[in-house]
Design a protein that fits this description.
single chain; 333 residues; alpha/beta; nine-stranded mixed sheet
């Protein structure tokens, strides 16, 4: 694959919702403004928080490359992303979490992927910044998706994947023309239950609309994601695993269990058993946390399965729903 196209224009969307992350937001924007492949613009989409929107408007009033917008849809991450997509002007739209910073060549590696016209989405690698300074000894690397990071079991290098991971991802604009935007009602909504999977559902829907499309992850496109202290505890681990099960049930309802759970089956039958065995081996060798990691993997699987079962029942009864709307606008040029 050839090098990046220097003329490729990239809009970066950062969805924000709380002033508690003020310093993180400033750091995220600064990391985008320092890219070796310059972003055309950074769009800060504020999720129904007028005080935060006004404060950001004042902060960036002198910066023409930073635009502050209000979420034009219902509360939640999906509608915020859709607002950013509709307002963006780039050929590619990249997404960065509001509590993450991108390495200097993040967008350059994304642009390199798009040198192939068949590529319609490129994701990257997300590395945790633990509040305590290190991963808790009981926390399995196989479950780092719980804290929004790249987990053990994903293939290394630049590889074709079913879906990219939402906090570190990019899409050609035409992806949203073909498949619509992110589904509302499936992902995060402020401080409510930590749901997810909206990017998984979108990527599967995109692959159905464009069977020839290629989706990649390039592990050189690195961001560093802050993990707050509250997420280092087993209570959050369990809550996030349960919510993932609920979300996967919605995805399966949307795209069918075959596609919706294809990657998860491989993960559950190959990656996780190996992780349990590794933990048990470490326990036998008296290495710290081995038994805890093995136990956490088992607990995580059972909790996610419980969430999936509950979510499936709710979906059948019509008690859980989400919607996909076309993304209007997009001032590409």
């Amino acid at each position: 694959m050839s090098g990046p196209d220097a003329s490729l224009t990239v809009s970066v969307v950062i969805c924000v919702y709380t002033e508690d992350r003020w310093e993180d937001i400033l750091a995220a924007v600064a990391s985008v403004r320092a890219q070796s492949h310059p972003a055309r613009e950074t769009l800060l989409v504020v999720d129904h928080n007028e005080a935060l929107r006004e404060r950001l408007l004042k902060e960036y009033k002198e910066r023409e490359d930073v635009r502050v917008l209000a979420n034009a849809g219902p509360r939640g991450l999906s509608a915020g992303r859709n607002t950013g997509i509709a307002a963006s002007r780039g050929e590619v739209i990249a997404f960065l979490d509001d509590d993450a910073v991108a390495e200097r060549d993040w967008l350059r590696h994304f642009a390199e992927g798009y040198a192939d016209p068949a590529v319609i989405a490129v994701g990257g690698r997300t590395v945790p910044i633990w509040a305590s300074g290190r991963r808790p000894v009981w926390f399995p690397e196989e479950f780092e998706w719980v804290v929004g990071c790249t987990y053990r079991g994903l293939p290394p290098g630049r590889v074709r994947v079913r879906n990219v991971l939402g906090g570190n991802a990019s899409f050609r604009r035409e992806a949203f023309d073909a498949a619509g935007g992110f589904a509302t009602g499936i992902g995060r909504d402020g401080d409510k239950r930590p749901l997810g999977c909206e990017e998984t559902e979108l990527c599967i829907r995109l692959s159905r609309a464009r069977p020839d499309a290629v989706l990649l992850i390039d592990d050189r496109a690195v961001i560093h994601h802050r993990v707050p202290e509250v997420r280092e505890h087993f209570a959050y681990f369990r809550a996030r695993a349960y919510a993932e099960g609920l979300s996967k049930a919605l995805v399966a309802r949307s795209v069918g269990a075959d596609k919706g759970l294809e990657s998860e089956r491989r993960y559950a039958t190959r990656v996780l058993p190996a992780g349990v065995l590794r933990g048990l081996r470490d326990a036998v060798l008296a290495r710290p946390g081995g038994a805890g990691r093995a136990g956490a993997i088992v607990a995580g699987v059972l909790t996610a399965a419980g969430g999936y079962a509950v979510g499936s029942v709710r979906a059948r009864r019509g008690g859980a729903s989400f919607s996909v709307a076309p993304v209007e606008g997009g001032a590409h040029g």
